[in-house]
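Intended use. Records such as the Nicotinamide-nucleotide adenylyltransferase entry shown here are meant for training and evaluating sequence-to-structure methods. They are not intended to support clinical decisions.
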Amino acid sequence: MVRGLFIGRFQPPHWGHVWAIKAILSEVDEVIIVLGSAQFNYIEKDPFTVGERIWMLREGLREGGVDLSRVIIVPVPNIENNAAWLSHIKSYLPPFQVAYTGNPFVAMLLKEGGVEVRQQPIFDRGKYVSTRIREMMIKGDSTWRELVPNSVARIIDEVKGVERLRVIITGEAEPHRW
């Protein structure tokens, strides 16, 4: 069995993520999806909790026709020691044989650790970007909904994610500034 690794923050998950995961699953038997920065939430870059991201990702993948029995979702908190990063994430995961990333820095760390790295499938990178989707939410551009599965949009509505982002950007969501 070949198990692949795909790391992201998924803030929020969008169709590009779903399509990338489907493409990865065409090459491997199972995919481990690491929800990185698991400890961060309620900040502009990471507005959703890890629990919300697991929920959104599972529902988005289900909506996209992904066989969830082939998917392992694991939240992993960041560490500030890049040299120890790979050992850190491996301690959270079952074994994997290949990793998919579009991030050159992550690819470097993985390769230095002896991991086979493949280019992450990317679908219309200019359109399907979580940062852009969050910016659209903040600006009141409702077309962000076209970029995420309907189930993800419903969850964002349920947790009042757009309202949360708008409060977060006021700066009051940064305890280190209080």
